[in-house]
TrEMBL record, chain A:
Source organism: Imperialibacter roseus
Glucose-methanol-choline oxidoreductase C-terminal domain residues: 449-561
Keyword presence, Magnesium: no
UniProt family annotation: Belongs to the GMC oxidoreductase family.
Name assigned to this protein: GMC family oxidoreductase
Cofactor(s) named in the record: FAD
Highest taxon above the source species: Bacteria
Keyword Oxidoreductase: yes
Keywords: FAD, Flavoprotein, Oxidoreductase
Domain Glucose-methanol-choline oxidoreductase N-terminal residues, every copy: 213-302
Family matches, as InterPro entries: FAD/NAD-bd_sf, GMC_OxRdtase_N, GMC_OxRtase_C, P2Ox-like
From TrEMBL, chain B:
Keywords: Oxidoreductase
E.C. number: 1.-.-.-
Protein name, per record: Gluconate 2-dehydrogenase subunit 3 family protein
Group of enzyme by EC: oxidoreductase
Length: 578, 210
């Protein structure tokens, strides 16, 4: 065995970006278009969604579309990654939970997400001022609004102008009409004063910036071969490459950010998975966009005499205040939808309508809110379809009109039941804000390394009463709506024994925090421009800088913040401050 | 980059040829590129783009010949042919179940053991294995295990087996081409979404005007 060494990459770059998802892609686009020479390190392989599995029938595989270890969301899903990766462990402190989803591919998680593209509202930046919990952001909605506008215009998002204060309208493309069952949900919700409005998804309902309009196959999660939805490779990395200023290194697992005697970053060291060797590349600026906890891990692992406690971590705040969205679901058979009229209701890849948070917390026993995602319809049948039918068809009438003593059965009647039940289930998933707390954190496990010898994260995460009560409220709401629709519940309502069915933290894959922003270096890792307090040429362009979560998916805010950060970098470079 | 018209985009999709050419053409080295699947040439009929790993699994046998025959018979009891569509056998459900058991080890013992339970029950009642008794006799056993909410506790193991088996048959049948057509799923193709049909809206008592 030859002596271990770290090879120095001969080229020096203006910027090294770690990660290629929403934040990394946006950084690459903005900075290469400004003329910077950029190297992007991506731990996974190249991916081009035009070569994905769109339009494959589930029956073209004997797995019928079922999930696999490598593709947790189904064998045709574009997401390569999961909660468990071979050779890349993480640990949890006893008595706490956290499931950490990691994507390993060009574009990261933007390849498979639901394209739910919600702006944070004015209140979402100052929650402490409203309810005394957590902290306010050092920036306001007005600071980020111009960037939300620019993201809307660049990427394309459909929606409707609603004028709801904390659900700011964007520059929307026309929203698709609701599906039949979605109108039924809206009708039921109207009666009990729960709003149902057009979704806001980054899927093109008109040609936009050279990309084709959606063709309504509903398979966004498989990767769109016409690039009609948003993913980082489709919308950001393509144009960045076109400048000639971007180099992408796939299979590069970042190990640490190297620093000089003053504590400034000098570059990044990484493992090249192709040859298994360690390399170091020099850069004037380092952008971490590896996902909130992965960027946090990188900074914790970047120790030096100046950064004894990890990069920009003399405060000890690095890794703290992580939050994932709360999540819970419920579904029911809707009698009005039984024996439906066959029609193609694929639509866009996701719901055409949703419920934004609509209540006043002053009248509730928990803080913060949630939005409701609505699902149902006549989908392409795949693995799992009709599983456990005995719990569904017991609610159907016998041919003579009487109630059935039992579900299940076999033969001709069962076959007719399958036709009757197809497309008749409607479900709701709540996605809520959890409160960022000092006590929810990730740290370096002192005893465990991954297969490249990189120390791994240990998670410490618990839900508080606020989250549990919020999810209880979700369950009450779902039951109220479904009951109002005449719904027949096929499963029991989750109660206190299961904390009302709250998903384990990390399962909603909205984790943010870990490198939070703030004006005070004693209580934050980066400043209001996502610049490390203690290493001014290091920036974080993922969900890490979020001070709080909001009851919204984080991607649109990651995109807007990254753009804003890169504009700041360009300005500071011009002023020769970096 | 020139905008791609909607009509062009649909045309390209049907040719399955539209790629991100203009966007991604200038990508650097193709090493390690992920294309989703490799393409072996000797693909079994009805399948497309299977990985070598899946091809290998398809060739693995889990059932004995006797077990496979029993699965065939039992699956046809669950999904017989009717005036609208074919049987479980017509949709190759036995092969689907065998693949699934190779793919999911945790289901192997419940199914293998359950088939054995069925044979013992059949032998106790009729002195012959399940495939050797008449259809009417088979149904006598099925009637005791196919209705979980009313079944006698004496048959609980048979009930548990048959619920899992029925799920496998149903999911295998309805995810097949035959089953998809039976359910009249009409998507998985490029289209223009312009709302649900009026007939459906009328039946639901909803409209786009309100």
């Amino acid at each position: 065995m030859s002596a271990f060494q770290i090879k120095e990459v001969p080229e020096e770059y203006d910027v090294v970006i770690v990660g290629s998802g929403a934040g990394g892609g946006m950084s690459a686009k903005v900075l290469t278009e400004a003329g910077a020479k950029v190297l992007m390190l991506e731990a996974g392989p190249h991916f081009d969604s035009s070569k994905g599995d769109m339009f494959k029938w589930n029956y073209s595989s004997p797995r019928r579309g079922a999930g696999t270890k490598e593709r947790a969301f189904g064998e045709f899903d574009a997401a390569f990654g999961g909660w468990e990766l071979e050779g890349e462990p993480y640990t949890r402190t006893k008595g706490t939970e956290f499931d950490w989803f990691r994507s390993r591919m060009l574009g990261g998680r933007t390849n498979h997400w639901g394209r739910i593209s919600l702006r944070f509202g004015p209140n979402d930046f100052k929650r402490k001022s409203i309810d005394g919990l957590g902290d306010d952001w050092p920036i306001s909605y007005d600071d980020i609004k111009p960037y939300y506008d620019k993201v809307d215009d660049l990427v394309g998002v459909f929606g409707s102008k609603e004028g709801i204060y904390n659900e700011p309208d964007g520059n929307f493309l026309p929203a698709p009409k609701p599906r039949g069952y979605e109108l039924l949900v809206k009708k039921a919700c109207d009666e009990i004063k729960i709003p149902v409005i057009p979704s806001r998804l980054s899927i093109l309902t008109q040609p936009h910036n050279g990309r084709a309009a959606c063709h309504y196959c509903s398979q966004c999660n498989r990767g769109c071969s016409t690039h009609s939805n948003f993913s980082s490779p489709s919308v950001l990395i393509g144009p960045a490459l076109a400048t000639g200023n971007l180099t992408i290194l796939n299979g590069a697992m970042a190990r640490e950010v190297t620093t000089d005697k003053e504590g400034k970053a000098t570059g990044v060291s990484y493992v090249n998975k192709a040859d298994g060797l360690d390399y170091h590349v020099k850069a004037k600026i380092v952008i971490l966009a590896a996902s909130a906890c992965e960027s946090g891990r990188l900074m914790m692992n970047s120790k030096s005499t100046v950064h004894e406690n990890g990069l920009s971590n003399s405060s000890g705040v690095l890794g703290r205040y992580i939050t994932d969205s709360t999540g819970a679901s419920r579904s029911a058979i809707i009698p009005a939808l039984l024996d439906g009229i066959p029609h193609n209701e694929d639509g866009v890849g996701g719901m055409h309508v949703y419920t934004p948070w609509w209540l006043d917390n002053k009248k509730l026993d928990f803080a913060r809110g949630y939005h409701i995602e609505i699902w149902g319809g006549r989908h392409m049948p795949g693995y799992g379809y009709m599983w456990g039918v005995e719990n569904s068809n017991k609610h159907l009438k016998s041919p003579d009109g009487t109630a059935r003593p039992s579900g299940g059965g076999y033969g001709a009647q069962l076959k007719q039941d399958a036709r009757t039940l197809y497309g008749a289930t409607v479900g709701f998933s709540g996605r809520g804000e959890s409160i960022a707390r000092y006590d929810n954190y990730c740290e370096i496990d002192p005893n465990v390394v991954d297969k490249w010898g990189i120390p791994v994260l240990r998670f410490n995460y618990t839900w508080s009463d606020h989250e549990i009560k919020q999810v209880k409220h979700m369950q009450d709401t779902f039951e109220e709506i479904l009951t109002n629709m005449g719904g027949i519940f096929t499963g029991a309502k989750p109660g206190p024994e299961s904390n009302y069915g709250i998903a384990a933290p990390g399962r909603i894959i909205h984790e943010v925090g870990a490198t939070r922003m703030g004006n005070d270096p004693k209580s934050s890792v980066v400043n209001a421009y996502c610049q490390a307090h203690e290493a001014k040429n290091v920036f974080v362009c993922d969900g890490g800088p979020f001070v709080s979560q909001a009851d919204k998916n984080p991607t649109w805010t990651i995109l807007a913040l990254s753009w804003r950060t890169c504009d700041y970098i360009i300005d500071q470079m011009k002023q020769q401050n970096l | 980059m020139e905008p791609i018209s909607r009509r062009d985009s649909l045309k390209y999709i049907t040719l399955a040829s539209l790629s991100a050419g203009a966007l991604i053409a200038c990508e650097p080295g193709k090493e390690g590129e992920m294309t989703g699947h490799e393409h072996p040439t000797d693909m079994p009929e009805g399948y497309a783009n299977l990985t070598p790993e899946v091809m290998e699994m398809l060739n693995q046998k889990f059932f004995t010949d006797e077990e496979r025959e029993m699965v065939r018979v039992l699956a046809n009891q669950v999904i017989p042919a009717d005036d609208k569509s074919g049987s479980a056998e017509d949709a190759n459900v036995t092969a689907f179940i065998e693949f699934t058991l190779v793919d999911r080890e945790n289901m192997q013992t419940p199914i293998r053991g359950g088939l054995r339970w069925m044979n013992l029950e059949s032998t106790k009642r009729f002195g012959k294995s399940f495939t050797a008794i008449s259809e009417g006799e088979q149904k006598q056993i099925l009637d005791d295990i196919a209705y979980p909410q009313t079944a006698s506790p004496a048959y609980s193991q048979g009930v548990a087996f048959f619920s899992t088996f029925r799920s496998l048959v149903l999911t295998g049948f309805y995810s097949s081409k035959l089953g998809v057509e039976d359910l009249q799923y009409m998507g998985n193709r490029p289209t223009v979404w312009n709302g649900a049909p009026q007939e459906w809206l009328d039946r639901l008592g909803v409209s786009y005007d309100s």
